Amino acid sequence: MKNYIFLGPPGSGKGTQAKLLAEKISAFYFGTGDLMREEAKIGTEFGKKFQAVWDKGEGALVSDDIIEEFIETKLKGLDINRPVVFDGFPRTLGQAHLLEKYIKSEDLEVFNIEVSSQSLIERATTRRVCGKCGKIFFRADLSGIKQCDVCGGNLGKRQEDAPEIVKKRIAVYESQTAPLIEYYKTKEILIDIDGEPPIEEVTQEIESKING
């Protein structure tokens, strides 16, 4: 049984593609960002630590120690009989080693979504997110969309989508997360995906790689 990891800088669309794949193959969607935001929303001890980092507005990642402690509690509860699609984890080599304590690398496939920095900044600054279900809308303001077409929730901006924060997040990604690309490439489980085309085309490319 294969499990899937989606790598890609902020705004690359990896979250959207991870959710689409999880739904298609009836996998468990392990969205680290969603899990962390939920913890912050309900005010758990983990959530308070996450929010403290985000409130700094510097685009920094939550420290490995906190993430690993949090994620490990979630990994222990996984259903081993059901495939998992990981979005936002692992982000560092240390986190990759943590994951391998629970899922062997031969049971993983890693999709690396590639998008230019210019496109990433444009996507992030025009992105709106449903406050209820988390669906992402690109260029919502230009199209006049004010409410989610799935649940009717109001759309808003994430604090991490401010232009200056997006640039810092890209820099953090390149320095801390990009080494994972080489790591998984040496294991021959990395698949590069062009993330520039429309969502539907990217989805088709991912599905063709899986079916291939």
What would you say the CATH architecture is? 3-Layer(aba) Sandwich
CATH topology: Rossmann fold
> How many strands?
8
- The total count of helices amounts to 10
Unreliable residue runs: none
Percent of residues in helices: 40-55%
- The neighbouring-strand order within the major sheet is 2-3-1-4-8
**Main sheet record:** 5 strands, parallel
Structure characteristics:
single chain, 212 residues, alpha/beta, Rossmann fold, five-stranded parallel beta sheet, 8 strands, globular
Structural commentary:
There is one protein chain. The chain is of the alpha/beta class. It has a single domain, classed as P-loop containing nucleotide triphosphate hydrolases (Rossmann fold, 3-Layer(aba) Sandwich). Helices cover 49% and strands 16% of the residues. It has a 5-stranded parallel β-sheet with strand order 2-3-1-4-8, sandwiched between helices. The protein has a 3-stranded antiparallel β-sheet with strand order 6-5-7. Helix 1 crosses helix 10, helix 2 crosses helix 3 and helix 6 packs across helix 8. It starts with a strand and ends with a helix.
